[in-house]
């Protein structure tokens, strides 16, 4: 990383291990922990983890900055943009941001759980040009190397290759929560922003420099297909829906086939309680996710105007702020990106 910095590259680092470090410090390795215990060990381990990174980078005269995030932080567009501002300023100041999930407050139901997922969000936050995932294997093989030791390494693959998941297994190290499948999913995700990914073995000498030099080390995932704009990427992969709307067949065709906005007349059901600006999941008549977007109406108002024409909104609500429930500029068709 120091060498990359010397070559003029800005680098953000996604690193976990707080809970494991805390377990070791408190003598809890191998013991089953409940959520409060995990959060307590994370609080102890986070200091240890950052201390290690600070000492390592200090040898090269590089400062580090800790950035802890939660799903709730990044699911809110305003907080997402605030996080972006912080990371961009750290990079401008020459600091290496060390990003991790805030395991001291994250709860199981709304946590990301693995670095691979978090790295895709950091790519969106800093609008990165590339992603390198370092792991304990050489990359993606043509078959599971634990079952077929001679399986050849795939040096370059397309993110559209549907056979990849057939080759992916769970975590083999027993330390992390993400296996090869989550790394492939991360590569497929950032490809929607046009960002290439390399999965490589962290134990290979000078692995980052060799990756950046274009050496065939690890597996390169090459982006293909239609790219998502910044807000579309956030909606699809970071913006956790606060509710859902179900739409009729006419609205489905308008959104999916013609890229139109969602009007009240096409809404048949509303699920959840939410305010204007909330991320909604748009479902077809069978309940399959069709799209995601930002609602311009609250759930209470939307229930009053659903199924009605736009010309009726003012009579029902006393005012008409918008013709659309979700404007097409704030909507992403997730059915097109295999989500």
Number of separate domains: 2
Text of the CATH class of the largest domain: Alpha Beta
Estimated helix fraction: 25-40%
Identify the CATH homologous superfamily of the largest domain. Answer: Acetylglutamate kinase-like
How does the major sheet shape up? 5 strands, mixed
The count of strands amounts to 12
Low-confidence stretches: 170-177
Mean pLDDT: 90
How does the helix and strand content classify structurally?
alpha/beta
What is the CATH architecture assignment of the largest domain? 3-Layer(aba) Sandwich
Multimeric organization: single chain
- Figure out the total of helices: 12
What separation lies between the terminal Cα atoms? 33 Å
Order of H and E elements: HEHHEHHEHEEHEHEHEHEEEHHE
Which strands sit side by side, in order, in the main sheet? Answer: 9-8-10-11-12
Strand content: 15-25%
CATH fold category name of the largest domain: Carbamate kinase
Shape: globular
Q: What integer value in Å does the Rg equal?
A: 22 Å
Q: What report would you give on this structure?
A:
- With 339 residues, this protein is α/β, with parallel strands linked by helices.
- The chain folds into two domains: 2-232, 3-Layer(aba) Sandwich (Carbamate kinase); 241-336, PUA domain (Archaeosine Trna-guanine Transglycosylase, Chain: A, domain 4).
- The chain has twelve helices and twelve strands.
- The strands form three sheets. It has a five-stranded mixed beta sheet with strand order 9-8-10-11-12, sandwiched between helices. The chain has a four-stranded mixed beta sheet with strand order 4-6-7-5. The protein has a three-stranded parallel beta sheet with strand order 1-3-2, sandwiched between helices.
- α2 (18-26) crosses α3 and α6 runs parallel beside α7.
- The longest helix has 24 residues, at 35-58.
- The chain is globular and about 70 Å long.
């Amino acid at each position: 990383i120091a060498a990359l910095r010397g070559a003029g590259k800005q680098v953000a680092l996604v690193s976990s291990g707080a809970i494991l470090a805390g377990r070791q410090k408190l003598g809890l390795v191998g013991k089953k922990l409940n959520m409060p215990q995990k959060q307590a060990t994370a609080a102890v381990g986070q200091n240890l983890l950052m201390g290690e990174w600070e000492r390592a980078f200090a040898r090269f005269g590089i400062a580090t900055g800790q950035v802890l995030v939660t799903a709730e932080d990044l699911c809110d567009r305003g907080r997402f943009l605030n996080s972006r501002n912080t990371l961009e300023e750290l990079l401008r100041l020459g600091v290496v941001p060390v990003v991790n999930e805030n395991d001291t407050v994250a709860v199981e139901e709304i946590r990301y759980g693995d670095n691979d997922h978090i790295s895709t969000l950091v790519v969106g936050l800093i609008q990165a040009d590339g992603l390198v995932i370092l792991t304990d294997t050489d990359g993606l093989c043509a078959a599971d190397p634990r079952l077929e030791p001679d399986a050849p390494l795939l040096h370059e693959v397309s993110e559209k290759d549907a056979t990849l998941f057939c080759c992916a297994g769970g975590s083999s190290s027993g330390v992390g929560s993400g296996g090869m499948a989550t790394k492939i999913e991360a590569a497929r995700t950032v490809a929607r922003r046009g960002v290439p990914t390399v999965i490589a073995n962290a134990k290979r000498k000078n692995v980052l420099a060799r990756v950046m030099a274009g050496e065939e080390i690890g597996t390169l995932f090459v982006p293909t297909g239609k790219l998502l704009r910044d807000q579309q990427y956030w909606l699809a992969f970071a913006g956790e829906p606060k509710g859902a709307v179900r739409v009729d067949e006419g609205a489905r065709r308008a959104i999916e086939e013609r890229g139109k906005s969602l009007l009240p007349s096409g809404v048949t059901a509303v699920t959840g309680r939410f305010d204007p600006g909330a991320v909604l999941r748009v479902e077809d008549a069978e309940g399959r996710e069709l799209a995601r977007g930002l609602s311009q109406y609250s759930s209470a108002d939307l229930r009053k105007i659903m199924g009605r024409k736009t010309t009726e909104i003012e009579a029902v609500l006393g005012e008409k702020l918008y013709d659309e429930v979700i404007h097409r500029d704030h909507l992403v068709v997730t059915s097109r990106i295999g989500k």
